[in-house]
Amino acid sequence: MQIAVFLTVEAPGRQVSGADLETAAAAIGALPGLRGALLYHPVEDAPDHPFAADGSGPAFAAELRFDERPAAEAALSPERLGRLAWPSLGACTPRLGLFAARDFATPDPMPRTPEPCTFLVRYEGVAADRQAWLDHYDAHHPPIMVRFPGVRAVATYRPLAATVPPGWEPDGALQRNKVVFDDPAALAVALASPVMGEMRADRDAFPPFTGGATHHPMRTRRVR
What we know:
Blueprint: E1 2-10, H1 18-29, E2 34-42, E3 60-66, H2 69-75, E4 93-104, E5 117-127, H3 130-145, E6 153-160, E7 169-170, E8 175-181, H4 184-191, H5 195-203, E9 209-222
Parallel strand pairs: 4-7
Antiparallel strand pairs: 1-3, 1-4, 2-3, 2-9, 4-6, 5-8, 5-9, 6-8
Helix pairs in contact: 3-5
């Protein structure tokens, strides 16, 4: 199990510039101890899907993987990720969070496209028993998710306590997860498949919690 840092920037109605993306990619790629990093930005003209009402998602997001927690915590310092800025987005809300990442094997994990489509999911709210909720999710939901047609990757993320740099907000998620497909069209096919019926049935069996989830298709660029 690896440690993941999630960085998200909310800027409704704005698009991140290519220059800001390259600046972020260079800064993230230079972090000590980094094992891998993915940059996300919203899919333009996403096909219809059951969660379209959730909107286009953050203007920018990144998932950074580390083998050791100290290296991940060091990345959250003001001198490292805390220095990032997005001039093209104007006034925005940057968030950082630390998570325990768990990957689940899929039948065919090799994407066929250079920039796959990641369906980022974020649960917000409070569970009556947080540990029981997270354990139930990992035990029941991913085994269904890996049966989506065309799925390339599935992962879940449990939040860990962390201090974020000044000017940033804590991520605050109850849980994060993702499923990855070759492109938005493949995602749409998966979400229209019978597997979604199993997903809804399992969702109805979740332990008690107050809140909900957002689902956003994102273009995905690997930095390392």
